[in-house]
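Homework help board

Subject: predicted structure for assignment chain

Our instructor gave us this sequence and asked us to write out the predicted structure in token form, then describe one feature. I got the tokens but I'm not sure how to describe them. Can anyone check?
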Amino acid sequence: MIRSLVLTLGLAIATPVLAQDEPEAVYAQFHRAGLAADYDGMRKYESAAKTNEMDPIPAGERKRILQALAKLLPRSYAVVEKTVEEGARRAVLRLRGTQPAVSGTITFVKEKGAWKVDDANWGER
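My token output:
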């Protein structure tokens, strides 16, 4: 009985940790929303600081900005390097995109236990 209770408790504690998305998965969702110029979709994966930058821009103007940016994003990409700082509060992905062929650097911060995109730079050739 005690062994069963300990196992159940252990799984209950471990489940939230297992459910957390890695930076690669978070960026994949963010990128997909970016290609669709879906601001609300992108917001789910952005840091609070980044979200606050776009919120004051009127919705119509924001949509035009995102549509223009979506045309510049590579259609696909590969992760070249992943760095997670000690303490797991910040992570950086280095990416190589295709169509167009560009490099990207995506910086993440951990907020409330989840990775959030804090900065996404594409265009380095």
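Reply (TA_rk): Your tokens look well-formed. For the description, you could write something like this. Confidence is low (pLDDT under 50) at residues 1-19. That's the kind of observation they're looking for.
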